Amino acid sequence: MEVAFSDGFAGDTAVIRVDGAEAWRGDDLTTRTQISHAGSAEVEAADGARIEVEVPTQGLAAELEPRPYVVVAVADGGLQVSYPEQLGFA
Fold first, then answer.
1. Pairing of the two strands 60-64 and 69-75
2. For a tag site, which of 12, 26, 43, 57 has the least CB within 10 Å?
3. 9-36 b/e with 16+ CB inside 10 Å = b?
4. Mind listing the pLDDT tens digit for each residue in 54-73?
């Protein structure tokens, strides 16, 4: 699955865990406001896996569904997760 980090990141760390094990870590993620993009991650996850994204620098976390494309944004004091049909950045 491909995870894109979009709005609301400013020098943040993001961690993706699959079944409790760290599968990806990104440091110093900062949103490029012109294109609403802070970074991307590719993660392997089997059907039925428990997938979590955490932004420890902001004290936020959310569960992710195992879908091909995921967008994670920081907004309204939490993480907003969406599942577009494809990813695209200018």
1. unpaired
2. 57
3. beebebbbbbeeeebbebeebebeeeeb
4. 999 999 999 999 999 999 99
